[in-house]
Amino acid sequence: MAALTIAVGTGNWFSALALGVTLLKCLLIPTYHSTDFEVHRNWLAITHSLPISQWYYEATSEWTLDYPPFFAWFEYILSHVAKYFDQEMLNVHNLNYSSSRTLLFQRFSVIFTDILFVYAVHECCKCIGGKKVGKELTEKPKFILSVLLLWNFGLLIVDHIHFQYNGFLFGLMLLSIARLFQKRHIEGAFLFAVLLHFKHIYLYVAPAYGVYLLRSYCFTANKPDGSIRWNSFSSVRVISLGLVVFLVSALSLGPFLALNQLPQVFSRLFPFKRGLCHAYWAPNFWALYNALDKVLSVIGLKLKFLDPNKIPKASMTSGLVQQFQHTVLPSVTPLATLICTLIAILPSIFCLWFKPQGPRGFLRCLILCALSSFMFGWHVHEKAILLAILPMSLLSVGKAGDASVFLILTTTGHYSLFPLLFTAPELPIKILLMLLFTIYSISSLKTLFRKEKPLFNWVETFYLLGLGPLEVGCEFVFPLTSWKLKYPFIPLLLTSVYCAVGITYAWFKLYVSVLIDPPVDKTKKQ
């Protein structure tokens, strides 16, 4: 805080925020790390010691390479630095290898690549004006936004405790969004195309990019009422966009096309043989669906409507990634989740085309695409909620309604990540960090919108406060009960279902605001 005070006085507050969170990341180096640590170590070994023709076939470890080619090349580049730390980490046959030098290298590689995320946040702050309230720097929208992004609790624990490389990937996405706000459409399209070839989960938001670029870039003018001028279509701009996407895709997939390995690459990227839900149910519609099926099956057994011998043996709460059949409700297929997802995103796409609201409209559509895919997608990971939380931060400093949605979504979504850190030493860390981030988020946004109506109604307040008793029950009370051995999945089930209610509510609330808001961008040029 002393460093921040000095920096504020000299005008270097952003650098102070970035430096402060970097120091915190360094302090988290010795903490618990998940199996994702071994996943990325194995990918370092694969890309370093094997020819490219074997990258997507290698299966010595169960943690096979299942990210797009650009990420594989990213691991390849990292591996040539890693060899100076510990050559043994680059041996494909050294399964579950770990050493102090390996730990330091992998932790610092995440911290170092976060430089791109810091730069992207800085660029986003240039684009977001928001309300101007108060004379204090800490009450300015740009300062608040910087804290909400740089010190985001979810990103901190997922990348710097659990272990992943989401920081620089979200940096690419935020930088792409910033370029679209700055009307640098080709750069924005290029950055997003690159991002897709780093991690294909960002396909969730591709419809928002495609429709917005077609509507705002390929059509160059609107009518006075905001509707499109069809004769303003620019074929040159369409070709430019297509060329950017084609060249990026060719650079990424070209080598594997030449090796006739594209089917193998895609089979790794889209493993539909996995189950509907991840080991820990992501807090989405399917968590509620699964829970309802469980309740109905219990009632059916009690009332003897169901035959115990005919109930599917595969458990949805066993902590395993597997396929299963529902007991009472219809079982869900990948095609069904795809249809549900498409139906869920269509209204937001419709609004983006027919109710143009400029870059903010695009950002809202992007968030709704991310949330809809999270709500109804196949085998969704709980960490995917960050795909909606981070861009929602940009909206939160602009309007009180968006701030309310952000706080509900963020508080609930962040709490849903708690089961990722299940070891005792990390319990006080995750509780403290989340409390600090949540308190700051609520207090700063309440100050920013203090002249408007309260950000929460009594029902929303009651729901968010309910997270406290839920945490006490799951972490401290349940382990003392006899149910711990017989029903070990109950804390996960309660957390997933409770958080699913909040995330569903935030998704619905944001959707309503998008549908009822009138078009505001009636300028001739977008």
Automatic annotation (TrEMBL):
InterPro entries reported in the protein's UniProt record: Glyco_trans_ALG6/ALG8
Top EC class for this record: transferase
Pathway membership, UniProt: Protein modification; protein glycosylation
Location in or out of the cell: Endoplasmic reticulum membrane
Transmembrane segment boundaries: 104-122, 143-158, 188-214, 234-259, 335-355, 361-378, 429-449, 461-483, 489-508
Record keywords: Endoplasmic reticulum, Glycosyltransferase, Membrane, Transferase, Transmembrane, Transmembrane helix
GO CC annotations on file: endoplasmic reticulum membrane
GO terms classed as biological process: dolichol-linked oligosaccharide biosynthetic process; protein N-linked glycosylation via asparagine
Enzyme Commission designation: 2.4.1.-
Membrane topology, as annotated: Multi-pass membrane protein
Pfam families in alphabetical order: Alg6_Alg8
A GO MF term: dolichyl pyrophosphate Glc1Man9GlcNAc2 alpha-1,3-glucosyltransferase activity
Similarity remark: Belongs to the ALG6/ALG8 glucosyltransferase family.
UniProt protein name: Alpha-1,3-glucosyltransferase
Record gene name: ALG8
